[in-house]
Amino acid sequence: MVTADEIGSIAIFAGLSEADRERLARAAADLTLAPGEYAAHEGADRALFAVLDGRIEAVKLVDGIPRVVGERQVGELFGEVPIALGTFFPVGFRAGSERTRVLRIEPNDYHAVASVQPDIAKEVGRLAADRMSGPRGLQGIAPTRRRRARSWSGTASIRTAPTCGTSSTATRSASGGSPPMRPTPPRSGAASCRRPTTARRSG
């Protein structure tokens, strides 16, 4: 069971009165997670969490593979994005390599507390904005795999038959253009073209 003192140890709730901390402690769920166990999956419904013991990893699915994109330590919140924006979880949250204890606050209980202490809602909103668009927020997460387009900037050479002692190479661009053939000097030792001769018949 979450205690009022544990509620007060979380910075965002430190300004609550003793009675409000007691009320929130009774409403909050106390969850103990095994290593790798999820407190909330990506796409889950909104709720606000805080880490009481251990460590939480923020996990984003990239091409179906879980990728750790952040973490939360003792006293830190997670779930501020869905709770402030009324959306689903954009990433999942799971326990790190050790057993982890978190508290979970349902939306109705959060809004009841925020109505008593408006600064809580302001801080949660600021955290949500920073998570979404800050320098280390979700907007900066890029896929690990990027599709590479093939480049066809090279050229293809076509060698044509020698004509009268010269060899001609036509260079055709990949875009389909066919520039005129350029004569090049014959290779050393190459046979020269001979015109057919006509033998005269003696009378």
Structure description:
- The structure is a single chain.
- The chain is α+β, with helices and mostly antiparallel strands.
- The chain has a domain at 4-139: Jelly Rolls (Sandwich).
- 23% of the residues lie in helices and 28% in strands.
- The protein contains five helices and eleven strands; from the N terminus they run H-H-E-E-E-E-E-E-H-E-E-H-H-E-E-E.
- The chain has helices at 4-8, 18-27, 80-85, 107-116, 118-133; strands at 29-33, 38-40, 48-53, 56-62, 65-72, 77-78, 92-95, 100-105, 155-159, 167-173, 182-184.
- A hairpin with an 8-residue loop joins strand 10 (167-173) and strand 11 (182-184).
- The longest helix is centred in the middle third of the chain and has 16 residues, at 118-133.
Can you summarize this structure?
Helices cover 23% and strands 28% of the residues. The chain is α+β, with helices and mostly antiparallel strands. The protein has a domain at 4-139: Jelly Rolls (Sandwich).
Kindly report the spatial arrangement of strands forming the biggest sheet.
Answer: 1-8-3-6
Q: What's the architecture of the domain at 4-139 in CATH terms?
A: Sandwich
What amount of the residues lies in strands?
25-35%
CA(first)-CA(last) distance: 130 Å
Q: What is the fourth-level CATH superfamily of the domain at 4-139?
A: Jelly Rolls
Radius of gyration: 36 Å
* Main sheet properties: 4 strands, antiparallel
Large-scale geometry = globular
Mean pLDDT: 77
Q: What is the structural class?
A: alpha+beta
* Number of E strands: 11
Number of helices: 5
CATH class of the domain at 4-139: Mainly Beta
Secondary-structure element sequence?
HHEEEEEEHEEHHEEE
